[in-house]
Amino acid sequence: MKALHIITGLGVGGAEQQLRLLLRHMPMPCDVLTLTNPGPVADGLRSDGVRVVHLGMSGNRDLGALPKLVRFIRRGRYDLVHTHLYRACVYGRLAARLAGVGATVATEHSLGDAEIEGRPLSRGVRSLYLASERLGAATVAVSDTVAARLEGWGVPPARVHVVPNGIEAARFRFDAGVRRATRARTGLPERAFVVGGVGRLVPGKRFDVLVRAVAALPGAHLLLAGDGPERAALRTLAAELGAQARIHLLGERDPLGDSPDGRTPGIPALLAAMDVFVSPSREEAFGLAVVEALAAGLPVLHVTCPAIDDLPAAQAPGARRIGTGTEELVAALRGHMEAGASRLPAPPVVRRYDIARSAARLLDVYGLALAAPVPLPPARGGTAEPLTTARDPAHRSPAGPAAAAPGGDG
Question: Where are the annotated segments for Disordered (predicted)?
Fold first, then answer.
């Protein structure tokens, strides 16, 4: 089987990195087409041996991108098209249908109650999403919370499949030597109390609350990995609070490891240098950074995290849910500061979100999509007929995708 993944962009972000990680665990050849911004994740995919193509789309209303996308899919003779993020889902599902690919899967990575990928959920945005959703064979939600939101919109439950995000837990296993080396490279005192955060620097992540909380704790430092439009405002806020020497805005860092030259610590090394991890965002679709922090043995404070909130508390005993106020966060951090740094064993939730299990579940969804007949638009002068991959053995692996699935209970 041959699959094409279509994504809106390949800058550093949770959906983009998750795609890269998933492709490392998929047994079939996959190409990736990005509509815009072939950023750092495109470079990472290419280094993994994945073919990456940039369509060069200029904006949401660049309708000329649609025929280009249709031609690309036809030339590639793909058995399945998998779309990621809003724009790619809208254009990609329509293009796949026009190109004659009936097996189309879309993953909803970032759907909140009031916004999708940071944009307000207006009636028009929702209507366009629902119209394009009907063109696909299946929709993947990254958490039970997202699945419930989709069903609340009116997506039939039978079309929604939960495939949680995943991590390679071994990458985040704590190492005391890495902790010392990373603190030295980032200019942190060896015994300083270090608070951490990871994510896009956008208003919805509410990192300003985290900056204020750390600034209110003399001697505490903040390591904040990520970039975005709020970076300058956060730097200004730290200066206004007199804490610029203790607030470290690190920019984008590779979630899979250090830079190739070894000079720039990646997310695993930065987590080793932290003492407590904070996710202050009010809305999340999953909360992958929280799971990575738990895999590193860190205690976690979070406002919302479906990956944890949807499960019994015993699955993540090191995670504590807090309110949205700055004072509550300051009090919680002060408690950790006074108790001193301690590392926790990786909780059961880390095994639950192993990337190999997620890949196996996704292959099951692919099997359903390939088997389900999807009506295609009529050819000129003819009538529409259902298409299934089973009609055309030349475009199937001999045993189908399920036979190639990696081990696990997916």
Answer: 377-410
CA–CA gap between residue 172 and residue 319 (Å, rounded): 17
* SS3 call for 115: strand
Read off the tokens for 81. 């098209």
Tens-binned pLDDT, residue by residue, of the chain (410 aa): 899 999 999 887 888 989 999 999 999 999 999 999 898 899 999 999 999 999 999 888 888 899 999 999 999 999 999 999 989 999 999 999 999 998 999 998 877 776 776 677 778 888 888 888 999 999 999 999 889 988 988 899 999 999 999 999 999 999 999 999 999 999 999 899 999 999 999 998 999 999 999 999 999 999 999 999 999 999 999 999 999 999 999 999 988 888 888 889 999 999 999 999 999 998 888 999 999 999 999 999 999 999 999 999 999 999 999 999 999 999 999 999 999 888 999 999 999 999 999 999 999 999 999 997 555 554 443 333 333 333 233 333 333 333 333 333 32
Closest of 194, 199, 111, 116 to residue 160, by C-alpha = 111
CB-CB contact of 60 with 124 (8 Å): no
Phi, psi of 373 (to 5 degrees): -70, 130
For 262, other C-beta atoms within 10 Å of its C-beta total 9
Could you give phi then psi for residue 299, rounded to 5 degrees? -70, 145
The whole-angstrom separation of Cα 238 and Cα 371 is 55
- Scored b (16 or more CB within 10 A) or e, 98-108 reads bbebbbbbbbb
* Tokens 């490279």, residue located: 185
**DSSP class of 406:** P
Q: How far is CA 69 from the centre of its chain?
A: 24
How far apart, in whole angstroms, are the C-alpha atoms of residue 300 and residue 149? 25
In the DSSP assignment, the letter for residue 7 is E
For residue 12, the 8-state DSSP code is S
Would you call 152 exposed, middle or buried from its count of C-beta atoms within 10 A (0-12, 13-18, 19+)? exposed
Same fold, 3-166+354-404 and 169-350: yes
Domain ranges of the chain: 3-166+354-404, 169-350
Specify the CATH number for 169-350; select among 3.30.360.10, 3.40.50.2300, 3.40.50.2000, 3.30.428.10: 3.40.50.2000
